[in-house]
Amino acid sequence: MTRFLVALAAVLTLTACAPPSPDVAALDHEFARRSTVRVDVELTVRADDAPAGHTFRQRGVLKLSPSGADGADLVLESSHDGPRSLHSIQTGGHVYYDRPPWSRMPLVVDEVTCDVPSYIGCLVDVLRPGVAEALLAASVSTAPDGAGTVRHSGVITGDRLHQAAGKRLLSLPMSVVPAALSGDAEHSWSMWIGADGLPRRVQASGPMSSVVPEPVSGLFMTVDIRFHDWGGSRTISAPADYIDVG
């Protein structure tokens, strides 16, 4: 009887302390609701032989849809060559940039661009169906962090991420040529999942290659993406005044 009670107590303790389980269905639910989520991204890109790189910071809101993110209101900042910022809005099949005056361009999404081309967090786009699932399938370490989330960590190749995303995802920050994760290289990553099954943070690092105007290797990136206010209802509207540039 004593051994049975000890075993039962151990089972109850493990059940009570069990970490939140990853639930990709929670992401699907947010996509279906067409809700919004706030993002805060820091991306650093450097050449292999450079002591420091270029760091970009982006904050704003992404609008979700059943196929992933399809709208955005984002501000990108960089201190490279002096402080600069770029405000972009994506809605209604167009992208607007605040290069005074506001400029409107048709949204072009193809086999290499992100659903939200101006979103620099799309290098590891857990808002794209399949990417979060691919990361969790590659997880080799899981640990509660004491803040109500569980950290999953592992390594994954660029090719596997591109396969999961259904395209080769590019990053397009200002002053840096479009670049993607190197396909056959391994990239370290961590993802924090909340008790509701939704990601709260994603970190990744690894080699990149520029892809236009011609392939160039020897780049390295680190990205840190934080998600806040899941389930929001923010309306993303086009600027009142703009000019068409494409």
- Fold-level CATH name: outer membrane lipoprotein receptor (LolB), chain A
Structural class determined from secondary elements = alpha+beta
Strand content: 35-45%
Rg (CA only)? 20 Å
Number of domains: 1
Which architecture per CATH? Clam
Relative helix content: 10-25%
What average pLDDT do the residues reach? Answer: 80
CATH class: Mainly Beta
Spans of 5+ residues with little confidence (pLDDT < 50)? 1-22
Number of strands: 13
Q: Note the main sheet.
A: 13 strands, mixed
- Assembly status: single chain
Cα-to-Cα separation, first versus last residue:
78 Å
Helical run tally: 4
What does the overall shape look like?
A: globular
Order of helices and strands: HHEEEEEEHEEHEEEEE
Structure, explained:
The chain is of the alpha+beta class and 246 residues long. The chain has one domain (19-227): outer membrane lipoprotein receptor (LolB), chain A (Clam), CATH 2.50.20. The chain contains four helices and 13 strands. Strands 1, 2, 3, 4, 5, 6, 7, 8, 9, 10, 11, 12 and 13 form a 13-stranded mixed sheet that branches. A hairpin with a 6-residue loop joins strand 1 and strand 2. The longest helix is centred in the first third of the chain and has 16 residues, at 2-17. The model is unreliable at 1-22 (pLDDT under 50).
